[in-house]
Amino acid sequence: MSAADTLPSDSDTTPPQPRGRLKVFLGYAAGVGKTYQMLDEAQELRRKGVDVVVGYFESHGRQDTIAKTTNLELIPRRKTEYRGSIFEDMDVEAILRRKPCVCLVDEFAHTNVPGSARLKRWEDVQVLLAAGIDVFTTLNVQHLESLNDEVWRITGVRVRETVPDWVVDAADEVVLVDLTAEALQNRLHRGVVYTAEKAKRAMENFFTETNLTALREMALRHTAHEVEGRLSSVAAPARDACQTAARPPEPPARHDRILICLTERPSSAVLIRRGKRVADYLHADCLAVHVQRLAPSGPKIRYDALEKHLSFARNLHIETHVLRANDVARAIVDFARERNVTQIFLGRSSATNLFGGFCSTVHRVVRLARDREITVVAERLR
Amino acid sequence: MSQLSNVHPSVPRRPSPDELLDRVQAEERRARRGRLKVFLGYASRVGKSFRMLDEGRRRNERGEDVVVAAIQFPLTPDLEALMANIEYIPVLKESYAGKEYEVMDVASIFRRHPRVCLVDELARDNPPGSRNPKRWQDVDNILDQGISVITAINLQHIEEQQDEIQRITGKRPKETVPERFLRSADEVVLVDAAVDDMLQRSGSSEPVDVRRLSELRELALLLAADVIDGQLENYLRANGVALRWGSHERILVCMTPRSDAEAMLRSGRRNADRFHGSLLVCYVRQGALNAKDRAIMDANLALARELEADIQVLEGEDPIDAIIRLAREQKATQIFVGHSAPDPWKEFWSRSPVDRLIKAATEFDIRIFPHPQTS
């Protein structure tokens, strides 16, 4: 997402608080060393005299990690009672009062205890950044919203705690913490990451060599994507004629605009993630539309499900629209033309109607919009 | 000669007996050999030597017999601390034609025969008359003796990356290591660092340096991802596991003489590049083409080759079935097809092929491209 969203506006009369910088230590599993490296850099800053505190830290009982917190100031956790149990969470208010220069916040994707001021830890981090505090945080690649379906297909695990991509895209730095899958498995064997029993279960399920290697590749590729995203804001140098690449020059890039067609069906979540991911990679605009059928004979719409999809899309910074029309396919195509959409994304669920015929919305959109690119998104089952 | 005849039809293949034998022999050789671990960085001072020595220190503390066989002096205090308890086999200083060289003392390493050998600056050249012209070849010999090696290399010294390196930095390092040696490693670890931190270390804030370092960093990340992708495939093959979905995009463009292949190919290339994925192009041959269609297909194939696509020509009664089979085999994630030019007399594919593909190929994204005559 554009940096402009997070910048203070020029019209403010009071000089705006400079926003803190966000640095993300990205890994692909527990135990690769994200927290360790984050603490290592914090120690280096402390030695240089920078005012750095630990806002939240999860040791998981790892001795070498705990040793890395020596001499670092820890902000005590806030204790909350919920249904008779005591939960501990980051104390945002205390950090704001303390106002350090740099604050370490472990486990960026964490969901806060019910009843907290904000639902997610990444939202707490936004508050710290807005107060001008620099934040170091840790994240595993599988918690990125756009990769949720891919991670599920590869590992069979549906990650529940996700972070919208724009939050990470807006980070000033994303640094990969790399470790080979083999070395991670060795760490598990030696009991460095989890207790013996938990390690054994982990290796039988999520921490298989195939899963870890695939996730690691994903983390490398995603970091490359983040680096590339930041590159586009750096001026390109003039190049010598002799340095031109071997490949024929790409015709001037057109501006892509992607339209995601939502329904109330569950598969819309996959459609939204996929459409948004493609839009991000193509640096395209992204819109979403839902067309309600006016005809009374139409199926009854489950508004709660639809509303959930629309708000999910908005959370990912997708502009949403709801239209009402008799002819759904025609309304989609007209809207696409009106808004100069270059590519229409449709779900497969709507490819078969009650009669399984070709008069379904997908086939009609394909027929009506022969002048646009149309993507029919896969039903990706495991 | 027609270009079509240059392209071999693809047939799903089993390994030949010779290939199987090669594989078994390679595995046996590998079992006797030491293990190679490489720390890959995108620039100097990114922290490769630190990671290498730190791993050596930890192994040493766990009781493994570790020696340092090459390291760049003078050491920074943190590197010196890491090396404090590790044995060092000094390099031999030699000069040739007025140039100073540091050569690993391979003979002493063989005699000492440690379990693990740490080798910094893998890309170094040896002077003429040495055991091997290159340090990486010395490492290869050490591995053959059953000694494991942990080493560090800067991306800029990978032979196959030289064109890109020159494009980014304007320089071409003289000392290089072939990429296949990197790919032969048992483990490759990327040593990443924020560009800002690198600039701080060098005291620069020039946009040119930001761009240069960022481009090198991206290249290193993608190279590492690619090496790992290869390792994953080897692992899956060796264990007979099928991974239906990899973690990178594979785009399959289906060409016909009747659709706008050029737009699909260019978009396919652009999408593959943006996703750092791969581009695959197929054409289903159905009987003989007339001269005009043949000329169109030749031009399309030439463009596909120019765009560095992997081209497959399929034979099949039913193009839809052939395309789906290929897409599954190649683990495609997206299929690009085009609307045909309106042709009332003869549709190239019978019965609205696009509709049939949408119905049948449920596990892929299908992207349908317009035909220029309809827009």
Question: Please, could you describe this protein's structure?
Answer:
The complex is a heterodimer of chains A (382) and B (375). Chain A has 382 residues and is α/β, with parallel strands linked by helices. Chain A contains 13 helices and 13 strands. In chain A, the strands form three sheets. Chain A has a six-stranded parallel beta sheet with strand order 3-2-6-7-1-8, sandwiched between helices. Chain A is globular and about 65 Å long. The N terminus of chain A is likely disordered. With 375 residues, chain B is α/β, with parallel strands linked by helices. Chain B is elongated and about 75 Å long. At the A-B interface, helix 5, strand 8, helix 9, helix 13 and strand 13 of A face helix 6, strand 8, helix 8, helix 9 and helix 10 of B.
Mean pLDDT of chain A: 85
The chain-level structural class of chain A is: alpha/beta
Average pLDDT taken over every residue of chain B: 86
Strand content of chain A: 15-25%
Outline of chain B: elongated
Shape of chain A: globular
Q: Largest interface, counted with CB-CB under 8 A?
A: A-B, 68 and 73 residues
Count of extended strands of chain A: 13
Strand elements of chain B, count: 13
Terminal CA distance of chain B reads: 35 Å
Poorly predicted regions of chain B are 1-13, 344-350
By DSSP (H or I, 4+ residues per run), the number of helices of chain B equals 13
- Assembly type of the chains comes to heterodimer
In whole angstroms, the N-to-C terminal distance of chain A is 30 Å
Q: β content of chain B, as a range? A: 15-25%
Annotation keywords:
heterodimer, A: 382 residues, alpha/beta, six-stranded parallel β-sheet, disordered N terminus, B: 375 residues, 13 helices, 13 strands, elongated
Helix and strand layout, with pairings?
The complex is a heterodimer of chains A (382) and B (375).
Chain A: E1 22-27, H1 34-47, E2 52-56, H2 63-67, E3 73-74, E4 78-82, E5 85-89, H3 92-98, E6 102-105, H4 121-130, E7 134-140, H5 148-155, H6 165-169, E8 173-176, H7 181-189, H8 196-204, H9 209-231, E9 257-261, H10 268-281, E10 285-293, H11 303-315, E11 319-325, H12 328-338, E12 343-347, H13 361-368, E13 373-377
Chain B: H1 17-32, E1 36-41, H2 48-61, E2 66-70, H3 77-83, E3 87-88, E4 92-96, E5 99-103, H4 106-112, E6 116-119, H5 135-144, E7 148-154, H6 162-169, H7 179-183, E8 187-191, H8 195-202, H9 207-239, E9 250-255, H10 261-274, E10 278-285, H11 291-306, E11 310-315, H12 319-329, E12 334-338, H13 353-360, E13 365-369
Parallel strand pairs in B: 1-7, 1-8, 2-3, 2-6, 6-7, 9-10, 9-12, 10-11, 12-13
Antiparallel strand pairs in B: 4-5
Helix pairs in contact in B: 2-3, 8-9
